[in-house]
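Our platform keeps sequence and structure together, in a single record for each protein. Such a record has a labelled line for the sequence and another for the backbone structure tokens. Nothing more is needed to write down the fold, since each code stands for a local backbone conformation. For reference, a complete record is included directly beneath this paragraph:
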Amino acid sequence: MIDPKALRIYGLIFLAIVIAGFWQVSLLPAHHNTVSVLSQFALPATLLFMMVVPFLQWLTLPKETLPAWRRWSGRWLVSWSVVFALLQAFVLAHALGLVSLPALGSGRLFLVYMGIIFMMMGNATPKTPSMPQRASFELDPWQQNRMFRFIGKLLFGLGLAFALGGILLPLEYWRPVFLCLMLAALAAGIWYGIKLRYEPRDKALGDAR
């Protein structure tokens, strides 16, 4: 079962974001279209999707692994709920005219926000509990733990690069920079997974200690 306290916090924040979405719809011009209305509910829809991960784990994982996944999913839900609540508050303040940013500032703010998201994912990934071998591409638990730590470092590094680049780099450079960073991270992840898969067991176990 998913942690009840985390689930209550998630539910309250999700409800608040949905109500804020309806409020934003009421602020739209009289001749708005369906796309404009649906876009106001993009944040609650994304937050709802974040619930899918712990829910599927709860349904499919063996009972002996559930306590560790329960703790991890509680932190996952609360962390993402807080991030989306802050983002919804900013969007609503902008719709009410309390916050105003030029297009350039909005673009930089989005890149910094994406950087924070990636850094949060990088921080959470090493804490992910190991999955049963049958559900994890034949990696043993010690291999999974090392893979999670490596992916966490990659995601955190990407997030830091996004955040700093959003502040320091001209925005017109960001498409090629973003593409190069993502391709490099993907290649590094594939390389490390192959390296782990064929690494001698005695050496890998010694490194894991």
Q: What stands out?
A: The chain has nine helices and no strands.
